[in-house]
Each structure stands twice: as C-alpha cells, then as structure tokens.
Amino acid sequence: MPLPAPLPHLEPCPPGPLGAHPYRQGLRFCVYSAAAEWLELCLFDRDGQSELARLRMPECSGGVWHGYLPGAGLGLVYGYRAHGPYAPARGLRFNPHKLLLDPYATELRGELIWHDALFGHHREVAAAQPDERDSAPYMPKAVVVSEDYDWQGDRPPEVPWSRTVIYELHVKGYSRLRADLPEALRGGYRALGRPEVRAYLSDLGVTAVELLPVHAMVRERRLLERGLTNYWGYNSLAYFAPEPAYGSRDDLKWAVRELHKSGIEVILDVVYNHSGEGDETGPTLSLRGLGNAEYYRLQPEDRSRYLNYSGCGNTLDFSRPRTVQLVMDSLRHWVQAYHVDGFRFDLGVVLGRGAGGYDPATGFFHALLQDPVLGRLKLITEPWDLGPDGYQLGRQPTGLAEWNDHYRDQLRRYWRGDAGTRGALATGLQGSADRFDHARRHPWASINYVTAHDGFTLEDLVSYSHRHNAANGEHGRDGHPHNESCNWGVEGESDNAEVRARRERIQRALLATLAFSHGTPMFLAGDEFGQTQSGNNNPYCQDSPLTWLDWNRLDQPHGRMLHACLRQLLRLRREHPALRSADFQHGREILPGWPDTSWFDERGRPLSTQDWQSPLGQLLGLRRVAAREQGEGYEVLYLLFNAGFVDQEVQLPPPLLDTELLFDSEDPAPMPRPWRSASYRLRGQSVALLAAALPEPGARA
Known about the structure:
Elements: E1 19-23, E2 26-32, E3 38-44, E4 51-56, E5 59-61, E6 64-70, E7 77-83, E8 86-87, E9 92-93, E10 108-109, E11 141-143, E12 166-169, H1 171-175, H2 189-192, H3 195-204, E13 208-211, E14 215-217, H4 221-224, E15 236-242, H5 249-261, E16 265-270, H6 287-295, E17 298-299, E18 302-306, H7 321-338, E19 342-345, E20 353-354, E21 357-358, H8 363-370, E22 378-381, E23 401-403, H9 405-416, H10 422-429, H11 433-436, E24 446-449, H12 458-461, H13 497-516, E25 520-524, H14 557-575, E26 589-591, E27 594-595, E28 597-600, H15 609-613, E29 619-627, E30 634-642, E31 648-651, E32 659-664, E33 673-675, E34 679-682, E35 686-693
Parallel strand pairs: 12-13, 12-25, 13-16, 16-19, 19-22, 22-23, 23-24, 24-25
Antiparallel strand pairs: 1-2, 2-6, 3-4, 3-7, 5-6, 7-11, 8-9, 10-11, 14-15, 17-18, 20-21, 26-27, 28-29, 29-30, 30-35, 31-34, 32-33, 32-35
C-alpha cells in the first residue's frame, strides 16, 4: 500500500468535497461529524487486516473535519474513529472503539463479519454502557480509488417517457441460471452487458432495466444465523459503493456502457429511507457513530430510540441539510461515475418528510429537481412509507413518476372477476388521471405494473390464493396477506388442463391490459416465461433457485407462448401512439365528431351512469383516436376487455370503418389481418385490439 514515509501525519488544509480525494501531492480527507470532539483517520494495510496508524484530524470547519496526508495515493485503505460523548438519551452515540466506514466510500475492502464488537453498546448489559471492544477486525474499510474509465464516447439513450418500457430485475437472479452465458459471468454485473442479454432485451421490447439495489449492503445477522441472507439488498451500508458480490466497479460501468449501445437505459433502485445500522439495538458502522442525531430521526420523547418509518429499524432525517447533501452527492456520483439514467426511490415518502410531516415541496425534492445533473433523469418514487399519512400516491412532485399500486390492485381485481371493477379498469387504462392529471403532470407519471419483486410473480398470481412463505422462517406471517390473487381451482401447480388453460388466459389478458394502458409499463423479469417462486410473495431472504430465473421455462410451451405474447404486445405499443399517449385524454374532440376517447358496451353504445355503476359489468370497450406519427393522418383503435367467463359478441361503435385485427389474447393466428365485420366475438377472459384509419376530416362518428 502506498503509505507515506517515514511517519504518516495529517496536515491542515482547506476543506473540500466530502470523502477522500487526491490533493496536491497526497490525499485530502473530509468527513462530516459536527458533534464529535475529535476524529481519527485510521490507516490499514492493503488487505484491510492490520491497522497501521491513527492520525488525528487537524481541523473542523462547519462540522466537517478535514486534513491532508502528504505522499499518500490511490489504493490507501482507511476508516475513522469518532471521539465524543456516548449519551444515547441525548441522541449521541460516539464510541472511538468502533471503526466507522466513510459514508462517501466508493469502494470497500473486506466484508462485514458479525461479532458483538460491532455494537456500540454492551448487548448483554444496559444499552447506556458503551462497548470497548475494537470493531476494526470485523469491519469493511474504505479504499481511495479513481473513477477514471474509458467510456468510449458513451451517451445516454434518453428514451422519451412515452416510449419507455421498464423491466425490473435482480442482478444475480437474472443471469445465475442462464446457460447461454459464460459460467464465470453468471450472476454478476458483466452478464447484463453481454450481447446475448442485450439482444434478448431489445427483441422483447425493453427500453430500460431497473436494477434492484446495487449499493453495498448489510446482510442481517438474524438471517445469516438461520442460513438465509438479504437477497434483495434493501439494507444499504455504503451509498457510493457498488455491492462487491456482483463484481467490480468497472464491471458495472462496462455493463451500463454496453446496455447504452443497445439503447437500453439503466435505472437503479436506491434505498435512502434507512441504513443497514438498524434500530437502537443495531451495530455502529458509519452514520450512527459520526452523527447519529444529525442523520437519523429520533423519537422526541426518548432520543435513545429511533422513529421507524421504514420498517427496518431507523429512518434517515431529510429535514437535516447534511442528510440531503449525502443523498444528493450519492445520486450525482452514480450518474457521473456510472452513467446511470435514473433512480427509483424506495419508500420515497421518507424523502419528503419535513419537521411537520410529508410535504411534496420539501427541501430534498427541490434540490433534486433543480439539479442540472439529476433533474433531467428518470426519477421514480415509491409513494408511501410506514409513518403517519404515509400513503401519498399522486402527491409526489411534478417531475417524478410513481409506482401505482392502486392500478396493480384494480387490474388484478378486474381480471379475477370481482364485481364493480369496470370503472377502475377504465381509469387505469387512461393513465390514472384521477391521481395524476394535475400540476402539469403527464400519464407517464403513473408507473403501471401487475407484479414486482415485492409480491407474487405473474405465474404465482394465477396459481396461489394465499402466500406460502414458510421458508422465510417467520411462521408464514411475513409478506402482504392480501394479494388480489386467484388459484382458479387448485392451490399451486396443477396438471388439470382446464385450470392451466384458464391461468394462461388470465396471464395473457393481464399483460395485454398493462401494455395497452397509458402510463409507463413495468414488467417483472421472468414473468414473460412463467417464472414461479412457489407461492412465496416475500422472498427477500432467498438467494437460491427459488428466486433465480429458471430460463428452462422459456423453452417450454407455456413459456414460449407468454414470451411471444409480450413481444407482440410491446411491438404494438411501439407502433401505435394511441397505446402510449404522452398526454391525458378526456373525451375531447381530436377532429370534428371524433373524440380522443369514447367508451362503449357490447352493443356498441356509450356506457350510461347506471352501466358504470353496475356490479355485473364485466365487458368494456374503448375507442381511442390519435394522430399517427410523422404526419401520417389519424388512427382509430378499438380495445375490448372481457373479464367474464362467457364469450360476448361486441358491436363496434359506428361508423363502420375498414378495420384490421391486431391482437387477440385467445387467437394464436398470424396478425394483423383484415376484419370486415361490424362486430367482434370476444372470448371470455380475453383482450382484443382492432385498428382502422380515420376517414378524412369532416367525416363524423
């Protein structure tokens, strides 16, 4: 390791950017710890095993400790120790016996090894008594590295929101069992950039991959002791460093660069609502030891305890400027060093909580949206948390898209055959304007999905009426108990041909409805070939074939059929603007006599108020009119949905046009093909799409 000789020492220097960076003929270290009495920089050997020196930070400016280490260079391995009062009742948890990871570390050396020395307090005695065992042997350390990389002129794809199709995947699980990839690459970052993967995604119609968390993470002790692990990764340790289990920093950069060559954007699922340090009984790893009361929300009546709006033990405090800075700096780092194209914020309501509760005009959102680097990206939030008034769907700031779980649930209920769901389906098809058509927002703000990592897969949604999570070791109590699912007669896998046919029918109908809805569609990786998790709707701790994609299913008849169906649906979405409108439609005339949307029943007649309110209504017809692209006139689309068991003869609304059939979820024959009839026989539990060219302006409906 390039240590300065003969004796390392820190010299005063002006403060600079937080973290460790080259400066003059050495390195400058800056770390925020406003309440600390003094800090030590600890230097380690190349492997991070032996502590070589402890150097007192010479200066503190505005809460930032800073010092210059002459002669030091890239590759130096380090950590911090913070000296100050250990007074949990006052929110202070300083303990110099605990090595602290630099919150701005961009690469880690070594793994977190669970040991009681990691805890700032004696676990077997009162929490008020600090633990004096050295945690350094069990802690990962930070490494000073350069972010230089040959990007080969990489440019962001900048896919318009109205053309975006998101594909959510887990880095390891996506490729771990993919036989067409070199074995050494399966399950890692580099697999994502392989030509085989890029060709598959492009052919399917995907424009963006959304990666489950890739921040370096903490794997909970309680899980490891049960032979499990934190597979999903929603437990961040280092907000600037990639998870090393999937490969190196350069591996991830290479994957992003290669995906960009195929026009595919990369969106990171990021976890800033909490850290991996857990609740007041958890370990002291980084933020807790540097600025516990600055970074975390503490209970006002007992500052030794945390407010837990994340469900994971602690909650970051976005009313604090240094928390906002930490997250903003982290986001910019991932854009500038890794060229990512966007972020999905886990439990995003936490990010908008000020002193008085949730506020979409809070400081973090202002900082994010005005930022010249970040404001142009695809920014997606999960619009809820576990705190007071934590459900805020439709109330995120303009400029952010939102996971629309209301759309998910209503779509599931409609295709399950629930009564009175026709109106909710109509709302979802038109971009959930009731939630999003305000403050100059657009349909793309609704991230429409049927399944995601959290919950059943599409195959399990139609195969299980109840969760089956015993493998998680929580007595089946974890995971959401209400999934709006249906097993269609048999719980789990079935050899019954009728049951299997109905399940396949519902899957095709769900995929078609999602593809034809205004808004931004998101598909879960593996749903396109029938991936199953055996009814486990919360496999966050299962790093095994249960969660790894089984690519053999793509070679089976059901998998081939589903894959071909989704590929066809996404091609139609690309080719027909009326399936992906950039603006909300409310039945306004696009040409004389031709409204942009109109609803009809099986008789081809407009739906009355009574029809909309009828609990028995299971068929819905929608006519959309939109301009073709590149000045090619106008197109009429007829979208037909039948959640009932019985086939329906549906009259198309007049006038009769020269129509062709583009899609029928129950018709495997080649399409498109001409359709001359004024009616269409729509099978039960199916979706159909027909199209026609609009007559010359002046012709009336």
